[in-house]
Each structure stands twice: as C-alpha cells, then as structure tokens.
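Page 42, continued from yesterday. The earlier attempt failed because a stray header line got pasted into the input along with the sequence. Redoing it now with the clean sequence only.
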Amino acid sequence: MATLIDMPKLSDTMTVGTLVKWLKNEGDAISSGDMIAEVETDKATMEVECFDDGVLIKQYAAEGTEVAVGDAIAAIGEEGEEAPAAESSAPAASESESEPEAEAEAEPAAEAPKEASKAEPAPAAAPAPAAAPATSSASGNGRIKASPLAKKIAADKGIDLASIQGSGPGGRIVKADVENAKPGSAASAAAPAAASAPAAAPAATLEALDLPVSNMRKSIAKALVGSKTQAPHFYLQIEVDGGPLAKLRAELNAKLADLPKEHGGTKFTVNDLTLKAAAEAVRRVPAINRSWEGESIKQHPNVHLAFGVAIDDGLVTPVIRAAETKGLREIGAEAKVLIKKAREKKLTPNEMSGSTLTVTNLGMFGISDFYGIINPNNAAILSIGATIKKPVVNDKDEVVVGQVMKIGLSGDHRTIDGAVGAQYLQALKEILETPSVMLV
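This time it went through. Structure tokens are written below.
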C-alpha cells in the first residue's frame, strides 16, 4: 500500500513550505533515508527525508508550489501501483499561482488611477498576423502574467518577461518558460524591426519589478515588526580605538594565514574578533544576557551568540552556542561553517534559534554607525561599524590620526535599563582596546 509523504513542519513558526526542487523523480527507486525534495521554510531551505523503501509513484506538488504543513507532496509505493488521491487543506495552485496579482488582473477598470480616465483614446492597433499565438502572457491592462517564481528567475537571469510566450493557464509565464529562454532573447527578436527604424535612445537600465515574498522574507518581516512594536527600544553608542584590534589581527594573520591547516593555519576576520569580544564582555556584565519572558526576566547561564549573515532573501542569524566558553580560533572556525551553510540555505532551525545576544556588522560596507532591531527575545543587539581613520585627540592633547570604530547598542527597555547597556559597552570597549586579553 502506498505511503504519503507530507510537507513536514521544519520550524516552530512554519505553516507552509515552498517546494523548491525535486531531488527524486517519479519512477525513481527510493530507500529509507533518501532526500527526495528541497523545501523552503520560513527560515531556510532544507531537504525532506523519506523513511520508506519503494518507488516514487507520484509527485503531488510542482516545483515552486506552496504547500501547507501536513499536506501530501509525494507517494511512495510499489512499481506500477496507482497513487492514492491526496486531500489538500488549501486550493491547489501551480507555482504559487494564487498570489494577489491574479486578483488584481480581475479588478474592474473603475479601480484604475483617475489619470487614466483623462487620457486620449489610443489609436487602433494593427491586425495581428495570422500566425500569432492564441494566448498571450499580457493581460488586458498590459500587466505581464507570470508566476512569482518565474519573475524571480527572470530577474536573476536578466530576461525580459515580455519576450516570453507563457505556457501556463491563460498564457501565464511559468518557471519552465523562463528556464528555456535565453538572456538577451528579447533584443535579438526585435532586431529585424529595429533595422528599418531610426536609431532609438539607449534603453534605461532600471526596470519595475514585482518580486515574490519568500517564506523567509515573511518570517523576517513578522519577527522584526513584532520586535519593533512590542519591545521599547533604546539606543546607545560608544567610540572605540580600533587600532589595537587591527594590529592584533594583522599580527595573527601574518603568522597563521600561510600555515597549512593541519599545522594550525587560519585567518581571522574583524567579525571573528568582535564576536569573541562580545561574548567575553558578558562575563563582566552578565545582566545584558537576559530575555523578556512575559511574567519573568530570565538571565541565561551561557552566551548563545547570534550574528547576522546577509543572503539573497534577507538576513539570517546563526547562533554560536556557549560562545563564552570558546576560544578565538574555535569561534572563528564555527562562524565560517555557519556562514557557508547560511549562504547555501542549509542551516537547521536549531542553528538559528535560542540566541541570548546578537551582533550585526555592516563595517565591511563602509557603514560607520547604525542601530539594529532587537532579535526576539534578546535584551540587546550590537551594531558594529567600520573602522574609520579620522583626527582624534590623544592622552597628550595632541591631534593625531586615529582609527575609530563606532559600536551601537539597541536595548529592550522592558528587560534592561540604560545603565546596564552603558556598562556593557564600556566593558566591550576595554576588551577591544586591549584585545590580547581575549587570548588568555
């Protein structure tokens, strides 16, 4: 008897998942433990494991389709067996075809902007050639009908959707149409007509896009809106002499970067050093390592340190567990592994949850100072800016060239007060300006 494989609940907040890619095809032999599909959750892209032996006799969801948690995505059975009917808790839609755009195309003309009613009537269009296709990818109001996934792929490949004939319902452009098109195909198709026309002005490099909102982006939006509206943020900033940190990093990398890995070779980033310093400073001001629990405030015995990693769909915050117990080399190595997994969308929910303090760094983009939004339910988030050369006054009242790093702190006033945040920033400043203390 066939077994249905349901959309698994891969995170606490997940209600739907997008089936990004099938790893097995219908008719393939499946063994327990095989990964059959990649699913985008509200946090990451993860693989779905099958726990049965047999043949994949049915795929119930196309690539790009949103499927509710618990709904069937596949059936595993014996070769030649008929797949059972699968009930869905939501209306079936190919490639997320039920997005709001479909409703917008059906809106009455009365909903159009008022300026449109004042426009002069357009001249009658020339009759279409006899060979013109029966369906078109453009709706009556000029909007190109394409699924969110098709739009995203087209944007990534630099393909003009107007050059593609859709094969979906009503001429809608779907994923396969875009994947079969070639970048620049629109320009080559228009070439014969352009040959007999006067030279036109160069095309604009900007274009309007309606980008689909991924499950991850929805999750980020929900979490940050909740944090900003529920947690009363306060903001502090401190200036740090970044020279000693830069010197230590240069010395370490000069000695270690060229060594083979088996001989201890490694290379440290500014982010590695600031993560270690942030965890070390909590030892001096443990009150920063708290969370708001509604009826209580919890002070955590370990620093589960989250740090921001930018990816295509937004920002994820992998967590280094018990960071205060780990040395600089261990933190640097773990951060590199987590960053790689984040960019490949392979982070597990456990690797992105349970943080007690967060560090975000935009210094590599030249941003000198900013304030992050607190990661629920942390008491604070640190914002690390770039180290900038600027005139400073030294201990002898001399104006010299200094290396200034600005560090911001956003705090949750329900959990901590300004004095705790200030004490923590002072402790962090002392460590960063005497960074050798991190090595003992």
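Notes: The radius of gyration is 28 Å.
Reminder to self: strip header lines before submitting.
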